[in-house]
Every structure is written in structure tokens, then in C-alpha cells.
Design brief:
Blueprint (H helix, E strand, L loop, with lengths): L2 H10 E2 L6 E6 L13 H14 L5 E2 L5 E7 L3 H10 L14 E2 L13 H11 L3 H7 L4 E4 L13 E8 L2 E8 L11 E2 L4 E2 L3 H15 L9 H5 L2 H8 L4
Parallel strand pairs: 5-6, 6-7
Antiparallel strand pairs: 1-2, 2-4, 3-4, 7-8, 8-9, 8-10
Helix pairs in contact: 2-3, 4-6, 6-8
The structure holds iron/sulfur cluster (SF4).
Length: about 240
């Protein structure tokens, strides 16, 4: 198998309680694809793979991906080949590109702002796969309004659509997390016009990359240094 297969194994395979089996995450994040979207033919292809390599079961995850549980490890090579043929062999699981985004103003009449085009702009900003791997685990979630269907408040980087005098803007939060040590992300400052958000996210990521300790994931960095270094980087030292 090629290097792509090794990378796919590292990113997409989840542990299983039975030796010889694995749970497989099929990433529904790729450039140009709204986060979590799958066509009817892609769903049929995944269903056929679940029948062939699993137990006829697909699970849709909180992170807007699909899991095929109970896959025999001996079949992973064949499964990877089938996923590649279906255009579903991406390996974005857990990276900045593995965004959660609610439907936003394109589909939801409660929204303040468009989530999906913003997700696309951020993906393009981080278009280099090697750079995404260098950044490592980073949860970025986008909600189009305070109803928070994208769980922006529980993300390392949260983005919330707000209405500023009739114009869509986005507020950024840092340090949210889910789980036992759950925390609500903290607002870093005034909201941004949509065209300014990708640059602000890049500044935040660069601040982390410049200051992180070896092996320190993005999610732990604001816990250690607070959000002031991010605010200064994004808004200037006088913020
Ligand atoms: S967060 Fe708001 S805009 Fe997004 S789906 Fe929920 S209600 Fe709609």
C-alpha cells in the first residue's frame, strides 16, 4: 500500500474492544464539500462497504462524519481501495479542516450569518495538507446564530454568526471544550466581517504554533497562556 494508506490508517482508524477489529471514520470533510454533506450515491457506497466489511451498520457522528463500526483489520486495505474509488478516502479527522458547521443562513431562517461559505474559506486558507498535519488536533466549530447548533462554544476555536446593524459578522471564541473538563469558549474581542475571519483564524493558529511546547495540542495552549496573546496578535497590543 502507498503512503496515503498509512496516513489514512493513522487518522481514520479508531480502537475496537475486540482484537482483530477496528472502527473506521469516513471523513466527510474535503475542499469544496460543505462539512458533513454526502450525496445519495456516496451513502449507498458507504452502506455497501458496511455490508461487505462491517456488520451492515453506519453511524453518523457529532463531528459530521460517518463511522463504519466492526471492520475486520484484515479487510482495511480492500476497504481503503473502495473508499478511494468512491472519493471518500480523506484523512481530515480531528484536524482544523474537520470543522463542524451548522447550515447557517443558506438553509436556516433563524440564522444571522452564512456558516457554509465561511467553512469553505477557512478550508482554503489551510489548503496545504502538510500544514494541517503540522497544526495537529484542533476543533473548529461554526454556528450561524446563538442557538449554537454547531456547538461553537465547545470548540478550541468557536465561530458564531452575529448580526451587526444588518450585516453578518462573526465572533470568535477560544478555549471551549466538551467532556469531563468541559468549558465554554471565551470571546476574544469584537466581531469580524466575514472576509476578515480566515486571516484572524490564521493569526490565532500562528500564535499557537509559535508558542506551543513539544506535543502540546492547540486545546491545551490557551489553558496555559490564557487568551491575551491571541487578542494581542489579532487586534494589536493595545487591545
Ligand atoms: S445555529 Fe442558528 S443558524 Fe445554525 S442551524 Fe442552528 S438555528 Fe440555524
Amino acid at each position: 500500500m502507498d503512503a496515503g494508506f498509512d496516513r489514512w490508517l493513522r487518522r481514520n482508524i479508531k480502537p475496537h474492544h475486540t482484537d482483530g477489529y477496528a472502527n473506521l471514520c469516513v471523513s466527510l470533510k474535503s475542499l469544496g464539500r460543505p462539512p458533513g454533506d454526502a450525496s445519495a450515491s456516496e451513502m449507498e457506497a458507504m452502506a455497501a462497504m458496511a455490508d461487505r466489511y462491517g456488520r451492515g451498520e453506519l453511524r453518523v457522528t457529532y463531528t459530521q462524519n460517518v463511522v463504519i463500526p466492526h471492520v475486520r483489520r484484515a479487510d482495511l486495505g480492500a476497504l481503503y481501495a473502495d473508499l478511494r474509488a468512491a472519493g471518500l478516502a480523506g484523512g481530515e479527522d480531528g484536524l482544523i479542516s474537520d470543522m463542524i458547521a451548522c447550515p447557517g443562513l443558506d438553509y436556516c431562517n433563524l440564522a444571522n450569518a452564512r456558516s457554509l461559505p465561511l467553512a469553505d474559506r477557512i478550508f482554503r486558507r489551510f489548503g496545504d495538507p502538510e500544514r494541517r498535519l503540522e497544526i495537529g488536533r484542533l476543533r473548529l466549530n461554526i454556528s450561524g446564530c446563538i442557538n449554537a447548533c454547531g456547538h461553537h462554544h465547545a470548540a478550541d476555536i468557536g465561530i458564531l454568526g452575529v448580526d451587526k446593524k444588518g450585516v453578518e459578522h462573526f465572533q470568535i471564541t477560544l478555549g471551549g471544550r466538551a467532556g469531563e473538563d468541559g468549558a465554554i469558549g471565551r470571546i476574544i474581542g469584537p466581531s469580524f466581517a466575514k472576509e476578515d475571519v480566515p486571516a484572524a483564524i490564521e493569526t490565532i493558529v500562528d500564535t499557537y504554533l509559535a508558542g506551543r511546547r513539544t506535543g502540546e495540542p492547540f486545546g491545551d495552549y490557551p489553558l496555559r497562556v490564557g487568551i491575551t496573546p491571541f487578542k494581542e496578535a489579532v487586534y494589536g497590543a493595545a487591545s
